[in-house]
């Protein structure tokens, strides 16, 4: 099939990839409905995808990955910058020449007997000054169909790139034999290239997402003066119609999708408050002409964690999955070909297929201690399906950001919410985010680890330089900089119960944050930052659950725990050596001396 572009940089690179992988056929993805429909039909005929109930779930498909291939593989993810020091201590590194030498034989002839799909796509609205083009070649129809949902895919991306530009990210993916021993997710930041092999799991193979929009884009942002962050973007509309835009960075599977699509409690909806979703996972941020920081969501869909999603926890996400959605590794109800996962409802299907493909009696299977859906099973849903998608979703200029929120899963230490003293202190607050690990990546779950700005798995260069970049951006923004906050929805009591209701009630914390941005409310100055006066967190309607004593606990700053935290941060910071910005070292010293006063 003939190329869809005259761009010689694209064509020569694709020719090179064809010569390397030797596919039987090459299909250029134009993004047309006819082409996608025929790919869906082909995937269904080979069993790669399963058609779900087209009346209840129109346009929805199901896919199962191999049991060894269900999450991102951080230990097999590499940043191959020319100099090892530029990848920094938080990334796996290998010299680019050595990595190319190792991977080239693995790709040699890997697509023999297969078709190569050439996917042009834009991250960001086509034509947005903040958008960027990528091209992914892959031997997986599943990848094509997911990229169709997650990006602006098709010929328009090539038209936007133009006939001459070399500014596109080259993504090479082959599922090969899905061999975990030879699985590699590799980034060559200086070559604008990503090579992924032996996986078919979303986060490892939808190369526009984590690989491009975070790892490569963070490196590009550093060089070009903008930021790529692991952040949701939402707008809170007040009764007077004014919308305040907020971004929030939480580690994987810590509720970004839920916060982004939050439905406020009744005491807010009755007044006319509303939350709009701009993005649920990634934000690209750049200073606008008016000096403020603007954000776009480079994605076009949601690759959300299914378990736990239900009409109460996230009605809008659930509703987004009701049509044209791909479900991966959830359970299937064989009676009516619908889907099920833990936490959807209390009625697991009796006649079920569990995520690995075995036919089981759902309730019995669960009673024996098994899970019907994989804990990291996913839905890939078009953003336009979301009932609360922001009218600004496709605005090429993005939305102006008033607040940036960091957060993680912390049983103790970190209060419900606090505000940093200023931008550099906020950067410090982001740098010290720690969180308990989740099923989104392979490895142990529930282990506390440092995850600065929720970017530990996604920063494509040295973390110390990344913090320096934050400091520099703050200098440029000056008094137009967003205010920076930290939240923790996950505080536990001594019996291990969550003490904050979370979900829609997180609106109560957003409300405080917005009032702080508007300068319409005072706060308590503590050693770690500004905390709410207890009376300023609206608990109308949840007084029984959040008693004054619990609120006090939620807003407590335990000095001893924080002193221990300082010791731990000092240890954590050591690995960054002389690339730790002096501003961060100073913030740590200041925190310590405030605690010792
Ligand atoms: C994701 C992740 O899939 O962070 O968004 O793992
Ligand atoms: Mn994520």
What does it look like?
The chain is α+β, with helices and mostly antiparallel strands. It has three domains: 8-48 and 73-224, 3-Layer(aba) Sandwich (Phosphoenolpyruvate Carboxykinase, domain 1); 229-301 and 391-596, Phosphoenolpyruvate Carboxykinase, domain 3, CATH 3.90.228.20; 302-385, Phosphoenolpyruvate Carboxykinase, domain 2, CATH 2.170.8. Helix content is 30%, strand content 21%. It has 18 helices and 30 strands. The strands form six sheets. Strands 11, 12, 13, 14, 15, 16, 24, 25 and 28 form a nine-stranded mixed β-sheet that branches. β15 (283-287) and β16 form a beta hairpin. α13 (423-431) packs antiparallel against α14, α13 (423-431) packs across α18 (582-596) and α17 packs antiparallel against α18 (582-596). The mean pLDDT is 97. It binds oxalic acid (OXD) and manganese (II) ion (MN). Residues 230, 252, 281 line the site of manganese (II) ion.
